[in-house]
Amino acid sequence: MKIYMVGIGGIGMSALAQLYASEGNYVSGSDRETSPITELLEKKGISVALVQKAENVPADVELVVYSDAVWEDNPERMRAKELGMRQISYFEALGEVTKGRFTIAVTGTHGKTTTTALVAKILKDAGKNPTAIVGSIVSEFGSNFLEGSPELFVVEACEYKDHVLKLSPNILVLTNAEWDHTDWFPTLEAEQEMFGKAAAALPADGAFVANPNDANIMSIAKHANCRVVDYTKEVVPELQLVGEFNKMNARAAVAAARAAFPDISDTMIYHSVSSFQGTWRRFEIKGTTKEGALVIDDYAHHPTAIRETLKAAREKFLDKKLIVAFHPHLYSRTRDLMEEFAHAFMDADEVIIAPIYAAREEPIAGVTAHALAGKISAAGVSARGANSLSEVETFLKAESQKLKAGGLIITMGAGDIYKVADALVSGTHVL
Predict the structure, then answer these.
(1) What the protein does (predicted)?
(2) pLDDT tens for residues 331-383?
C-alpha cells in the first residue's frame, strides 16, 4: 500500500510511519521543519518533505494519515480530498493497526512515555517480542518504534480529544489523572468520565492497571468490568531515572507486564527495569556548556510534572544553582493552570519563560510569558519573561558564564525549547 502522512514528524506519527514501512508499505510524508525525528525517518528510507504543499501528495496514494495538529484546510489534506483519497487521523490509524491484536495501552496525565517504554523493554528483554509505539526516542531501541510481533502491541495512548477511546486494548494502564488539556476537557470530572469510558470498554478477561486508591482514580476504576491491578503494590529496584514519580512509572510498567505475562520472572523484570536508560527529552542530560554548567532537557509541561522534576533535580544536585528555562505549551493550559504554574518552580533559583508555544491555538489576551513570569516572581522565585528563544539562549549563556561548573540549567516544556539546550552544549545558536 502507498501511504502519505501529513505531519509525519510528530512523535506518534513517525512511529506509525516506521510500523507501516516495516510491514512493506511505501510511506512518505511531510512536516514543517527538520527535527531529530524527521532525520531518523530519512535514515530509515522514509522520505519527508519539509514544505507542505498539494503537489507533495502522489496521485496513487491509497491512504492519507494526518496528525491532529493538521487542520482540514491544509493544502495536502485538501488535495487528498479532491482526489477522493481515504483520510484518517493518527489515532484512528493506530486503532486500525492494533485492532484484533493483544494490546497494552498506556494513558494518563503524566508518565505515559516512560511507562510505555518500560513495558516494551521488559517484554522485549523477556523474549515476548512486542511491537511498540512510544512517545519519545527510547535509548535502548534507538527509535520511538520497536519492531516485533504483529500480535503483541505496546502503545502510548493520549487522552486529548478522547483519543484513547479509538483503541481497543486488552490491558489499559492509567498512570494518574489530573486536569489537563483544558481546551478539550472543561473540568477534571469530564476527563475522569472519559477515562471511565476507556476502563469500561476493556474486555472481561482484560486488566485495568492503576492506583485505585488515588482520589482522582477511584471513580474511574469503578467502571472497569475486569480485574483492577493496583500497581502501587509492586516493588521495583534502584532505577537509573530520578524521582519518586519515575518509581511510580516503573511500578505501573511492571504491573502491566505481569498482568500480560505472569510467567516473567522477578529476576528478569528487575534486571530490565534497573538497566533502563530513559528516553529523549525525559530528564535527558545533554552535556555541559563550555564554562562547565550542566544542561538537562525535560518534556515537563504540566505544573505537577514541573514540580516533581525540579524536586528530583534539587535532590540530585544539591550543590548547584538551578536555572530553569520553561516553554509554556498552549495558551489555554497556561491560562487555566496559571496559579498552579506559579507555584511549580519553588525548587528553582531563577526562571526564564519563553514565549508561549501556541501549537493549535490562537493567542489569548493577557496570557503571555511575561504574565506567567510575574506570577512566579510573586510566589517567591525570581522569574522573567522572554520575547524569543534567542533571548532565552542569550540569558542562559550569560548565566553559564557566571556560574560555570556550579550551574545547572534545565530547559523544560513540550515545544522547541530543546533546541536551546542543544545550542548551549554545542556552542551554536538556536536560530
Answers:
(1) Cell wall formation.
(2) 999 999 999 999 999 999 999 999 999 987 899 999 999 999 999 999 999 99
- H or E, element range at 228: strand 227-230
Distance of CA 102 to the CA centre of its chain: 23
Over residues 113-141, the pLDDT tens digits come to: 999 999 999 999 999 999 999 999 999 99
Q: Residue ranges per domain, the chain? A: 2-93, 99-274, 284-426
Q: At what angle do helices 112-125 and 266-274 cross, to 10 degrees?
A: 130
Is residue 288 marked as binding?
Answer: no
Is 114 known to sit in a ligand binding site? yes
Q: Is residue 289 part of an annotated ligand binding site?
A: no
From the number of C-beta atoms within 10 Å of its C-beta (0-12, 13-18, 19+), residue 281 rates as buried
Q: What are phi and psi of 345, to 5 degrees?
A: -105, 25
Architecture of domain 284-426: Alpha-Beta Complex (3.90)
Q: Which CATH architecture has domain 99-274?
A: 3-Layer(aba) Sandwich (3.40)
> Rounded CA gap, 289 and 397, in Å?
8
- Cβ burial, residue 354 (10 Å; 0-12/13-18/19+): buried
38 is in an annotated binding site: no
**Could you read off the pLDDT of 284-340 as tens digits, one per residue?**
999 999 999 999 999 999 999 999 999 999 999 999 999 999 999 999 999 999 999
In the numeric block, which cell numbers belong to residue 418?
A: 530543546
The pTM assigned to this predicted structure is 0.94
* 127 CB neighbour count, 10 Å cutoff: 9
Name the H helices within 157-281.
Answer: 188-200, 218-221, 244-260, 266-274
- Is 24 a known ligand-binding residue? no
Is residue 110 annotated as involved in ligand binding? Answer: yes
Distance of CA 96 to the CA centre of its chain: 22
From the candidate CATH numbers 3.40.50.720, 1.20.1070.10, 2.60.120.10, 3.10.450.50, the one assigned to the domain spanning 2-93: 3.40.50.720
Is 368 a known ligand-binding residue? no
